Amino acid sequence: MNPPATRYGSDRDSDRGQATVELALALPLVCLLLFAVVQVVEVGRDQLAVQLAAREAARAAAVAADPAAAGTTAAHRAVTLRPLEVHITIAGGAVTATVGYRNDTGVPMIGALLPPVALTATVTMALEPP
To answer: What is the pTM of this model?
Structure first.
């Protein structure tokens, strides 16, 4: 026996469209969360690139006759991030390369909420005169 019909139709008809409404309410939050994850991944990728640039700068500066020029050139060749700030210091038989980069948070919706992130990496290697 079928249940009696309500004034507006059956009980099944009253739930029609519920999933669509729930999706419409949840979709902006899901998109915001997805954009936040993309922003975190982008900053992490850039941090790894800055670390690579610092390692390459220290390695080149440790064996060069002109450590500052060699380190700066090596850092810029290692990654495509621009502008990089490269500082080479020599003290106590070691060369230290410090590389900095400012990541402008540019992912839609999330980038406007976050300030730019300053990324830095420092690597020290033994000085090996040429």
So the answer is: 0.81
For the beta sheet containing 94-103, the strands, ordered from the edge strand earlier in sequence to the opposite edge, are 85-91, 94-103, 117-126
Q: Classify residue 127 by its DSSP letter.
A: -
Largest CA distance in the chain: 96
**Residues in Cβ contact with 102 at an 8 Å cutoff, skipping those fewer than 6 apart:** 116, 117, 118, 119
pLDDT tens, per residue, the chain with 130 residues? 666 555 655 666 667 788 889 889 999 999 999 999 999 999 999 999 999 999 999 999 999 999 999 999 999 999 999 999 999 999 999 999 999 999 998 888 888 888 999 999 999 999 997 7
DSSP code string of 8-41: TB-HHHHTTTHHHHHHHHHHHHHHHHHHHHHHHH
